[in-house]
Every structure is written in structure tokens, then in C-alpha cells.
Amino acid sequence: MILKIIVGLGNPGKKYLNTRHNAGFLFLDHFAVLNSLSFVPSKHRYYKAEGALAGNPFVLVKPTTFVNLSGDAVIDVIDEYSVEVEDILVVHDEINIPSGTYKVKKSGSDGGHNGIYSIIYSIENDSFPRIRIGIGNDFPQGGMAEFVLSPFSADESEKLNKVFETCIELTKEFIVSGVKGLLDTNSKLSKRVENNPPESGQESLDTNSKLSKQDQTQKTINPGD
């Protein structure tokens, strides 16, 4: 069995607990509870929770480095567990995707996300899969940092929990079947949504949802962003 690593991006500390930038942390917390796991400190720059699914081992990882330095923690993970890059799934927030939706990405550029940029820069490789959780971009010009570091609204939290249900299914497939399982399941889920469109007023989980605004980057200035 090949060990799988699931890294959720976010900022440590109570101050950032339920903020939009911590969507990755929140997802891992949800996944851990469902699998009766608890996070413990590691000897490195992250908290971890080790488990197995149908005999397939996995480790949940929450960096303690702040989002902009996530690559430091991923380097530590690779050193400790000797895993291949494609066996690391990264879950993170994404402003270029509407709230209540998600997208799966097999590999590629950082898309303007500082945490992903840090990982790619640190490991010198962009071949790791990602689940991008939409948080939307409903903020005025120059207000991105405040937006991503603000708590989810009640409506957003409800949408987030629904997205998590789908992301849990995707993550399980990744643990059992790797990147191929992740992509195949995502394709099936996308077709399911296409065949059963949401009622008027509801948002779709379609991974190909159009952006509600023009693309904006998640490049931030402060190390805690």
C-alpha cells in the first residue's frame, strides 16, 4: 500500500480558526472527526493525524508555518515519510471559484495562491494534485487580504459543509486509488451534477463553474495571510 499525504492549508492560531483562508484546515478537521482521528504535534513544522482507509495508510497534515510558508512544512513531510510528490494531495481555499463549489486540479501553476506558490518553490515541482475550495471574491478592490482573513458567514459555512461532503468522497478515492481515482471520481461527480442540475437559486458543485468575477490573485503581503 502506498502512503498518501493530505495537506490542508491555513494559518495556525485561534485568531484564524474559522476564516476563509483556513478552508483547508477546516476540511481536514472535518475529515479527521469522521475517521475518529486527532491531530498531534510532529517533530517538524506541522500537526499530523495518521490513519488508514481499507488498509490504505494516510497522514493528514496541518502546517504550522502560516499559509505563505506552506512549502517549508511540505518539505518536512517529504523528508519524514519519503513520499512521491504525486502522492500528496493539497486542499486549499480559492477566491477564483464561487462559494459553495470546488475544483480538482491534477498539477500545474500556483494560480496566484501564495501557499501553493510556496510549495512549488520549495519542492521545485508542481506535479501534486489539489482540491480547490471556492470562497468567492465578494470584496472591493484592495480588500482581498481582509476578506480571506475574515470568518465565513453562516450562509457560507452551510455551503462549505455541503462541499466538504463531496471533497471527502474525493479524498477517500485519492487515498485508495491515487490521482487516477481522484480524477475519475471527480469526473463522475461532475456528470452527476450535469444530469441533476440544482433548483433555481441553488449553486452547483460543478467543477467547471464560471467565475462570478474576473480572475483575481491571492498574492498577499503579510506572512500571516
Quick overview:
This protein has 225 residues and is of the alpha/beta class. It is 36% helix and 17% strand.
Please write out the topology.
Layout: E1 4-8, H1 23-34, E2 40-41, E3 46-53, E4 56-63, H2 70-81, E5 88-94, E6 102-105, H3 114-123, E7 130-134, H4 144-148, H5 154-195
Parallel strand pairs: 1-4, 1-5, 5-7
Antiparallel strand pairs: 2-3, 3-4, 6-7
Describe it:
This protein is α/β, with parallel strands linked by helices and 225 residues long. Helices cover 36% and strands 17% of the residues. It has a seven-stranded mixed beta sheet, with helices on both faces. A hairpin with a 2-residue loop joins strand 3 and strand 4.
Examine the secondary-structure arrangement and name the CATH architecture: 3-Layer(aba) Sandwich
CATH topological fold name: Rossmann fold
Count of helices?
Answer: 5
The CATH superfamily turns out to be: Peptidyl-tRNA hydrolase
Mean of the pLDDT scores?
89
CA-based gyration radius: 16 Å
List keywords for this structure.
alpha/beta, seven-stranded mixed beta sheet, single chain, 5 helices, Rossmann fold, 225 residues, 36% helix
